[in-house]
Records
---
Amino acid sequence: MLVLVNDKIKAINEAARVIKKGGFAGWLELSWKKEITKDFIEKISTVICAYCMTNVSTFDGWRKTFIDAGIDNVNVIPLDFNPQGGFRDMIQDEGFFRTLSIMFNIMKNKEIRERVKIMNNFFKENSDVFGCGIYYFKK
């Protein structure tokens, strides 16, 4: 995920360099559905405690990043961000045993349970802001 990378242009260029002619490169990135304020970034940094949130961009912002990297044929598929997926979604993402481990830790640890609840509520309350996008291009 590019939100975890400091030099996004370099990462995109490296992907473009190593794929064969006719090949695809793609990213799934957390994306803002609309421009956000500095206050929102401070709030999300407090609630989520994730540095990577400062690296999230709007759908158009991500498109511009790819264009700045020399990729003029980037395709964008905007999606809703839904961290409220069920147990089945979690198994698909994490695998059966990892899901059991996560669920066990949530059940046995009150602090983790409260943290998950706060984060889920935050995502729910701000669903008009959180999205994700699939960004891909063909070489």
Note: The chain has a mean pLDDT of 88.
---
Amino acid sequence: MDILTQGLLGAALSQSIASKKETRIATGVGFFAGLIADADIFISSASDPMLNIELHRHFSHSIFFVPIGGLIAALILWPILQRFFNHEPLTFKRLYLFCLMGYSLSGFIDACTSYGTHLLWPLYDERITFHLISIIDPIFTGVLMLAVIMAWRKYRPRLAHIGLLFCGSYLLLGIFQLNRATDMAMALANSRQHAVDQLVVKPSLANLLVWRSTYIANDRIYVDAVRPGFTENKTYTGSSVPLFIPERDATDIPKDSVLYGDILRFEKFSDGFIAMEPGKNNLLGDVRYSMTPIKIATLWGITLDKTKLNEHAHYGFYRATSPDDRKNYIAMILGD
């Protein structure tokens, strides 16, 4: 999830095992430890832009890395606490325990989003994605923030327990909504008499009401939105685009070139949901993600510059939306 939520979750987990007098220091320690896993965002290469997306949410988000991540956080914080907070004595063992708790669910909560993590690396070197919550969810983050702040102010770790209980319940609601949205997406595909090869259903930005349905059938990618409501279900018909198949659509790019290798890397990263972006020259996009639930417009992609066959492809982000897109998106959430 977003960096703020990661820190707040770490803070709440550390608060949950703290005594009353330890509540405030546990808050800061847990918040810091909750951010450490995402330090992998700084792993990059000027010559290979795709290295960053391949290693982000990788080994640092594995459950097997948790003890090491907690130790790294403790080693960083120990000299700082000794110098500036020695009036609040804290043993290294206790500090490590707070850091361990703060770091413990960093990989799991990211796996609950649609981006996923290498949660079981090195035993299983594939991204695990549960699609239960958006990367940014103001309700989840807001309630968690309130619980953490109140626990900090009142020296009451029990308030952190309440916040964590809410978070767990919210993720259970995500499971419920995901199952309903998946059923609606499959029903829509069946109504079109499509034999679905792959289907991914994920929550749209900042809510659990509108879900983006993306499926592959007959070598095309179909994008729609579904809203499994509590009184009425609604379907918003989107559009489709030809699936990009490297063996068929990149025959003019030598298979031993760097560019072709990057196409295959991007195809793997995108789980096969790749297509040329309509209206954008030579942009190969990951169709699973978009700022607008019913549009093809991708959030990120690589540029296929055939004049630079032996250079790594440019990787870019495309987050622009129009006022009409935002208006329509809000209308979908409201059920209009």
Note: The chain has two domains: 3-174, 192-336.
---
Amino acid sequence: MRRSKIAGLGFYVPEKVITNHDLEKIMDTSDEWIQERTGIKERRFYDPDSDTVANMGVKAAEIAIERAGIKKDDIDFIIMATLSPDYCFPGSGVLVQKEMGLDNIGALDVRNQCSGFIYSLAIADNFIRTGVYNNVLVIGSEIHSSGLDLTTRGRNVSVIFGDGAGAAVISPETNEGKGILVNHLHSQGEFAEELAVINPGSSGKERLTVDMVKNAEIFPYMNGNHVFKHAVTRMPEAIMEALETTGKSFEDIDLIIPHQANARITEFIAKKFGLGKDKVVSNIHKYGNTTAASIPIAMTEAWEEGRIKEGSLVCLTAFGSGFTWASSLIQY
């Protein structure tokens, strides 16, 4: 039976480091307040003169391709997960295709925010399993900093997010019991407005008005308590679903890589299942929430540190705007 595997991983983050102390200078907040509520110490902000969502993704992809042991031209499809495309349209996937010089291959953009990488991984997995493609490039890339309300008014949301990109090459796996074992994808649209950027939008009389800007309607809104409550319910559910479907147990798992939304959520997952810190990846203190890029960045770092190796059973899980949530179980 043909399965798919993650053949190579890579990530890129901008050079500009923004600490909590930097934010103290432009809004009424503190390092202590931010760390206590989120676990974040610093994040990266893009360079407007050199970074784009697409080219950050390309930089991550080039590393992933090299580590996969293939050539750039072996890639036959691109899946780009982002909530912050370079343009309203077209999506950034085609910009990746252009920058990489990949000859007329297909490019798909996925707009599932924090769950975007796992959704994209599931799509790639099915393309590989069915023999449609052989090497699918999956990228999560975000530039949040240009769309945040970096004032006291927006501090509850703005201190959380950072910029970055991660990428994976998905290729065939023919060894029985190895590769991507299962993916589970869910949504609950009744809570769509609890974590969202509503405007500019296409369903109103006008897409963008002066009042929208003045009233901060163009910036992200988050009902923090509501989001937290659902995240700590849905992410464990998604992990359990992956284990039950495959007949695995927590004793079998070597590493859980959750979306890096908030250190308190990661700590809740570890505590709920009685897992030590060595079993749950957390790097939000360095990068903040990079949405679709957070899992591939965290996964790449874990691989670089030797925490993912041959024989490892790894579970990915995410929850975010939509609401959407997802999980993947991968046997190396």
Note: The chain is about 35% helix and 25% strand.
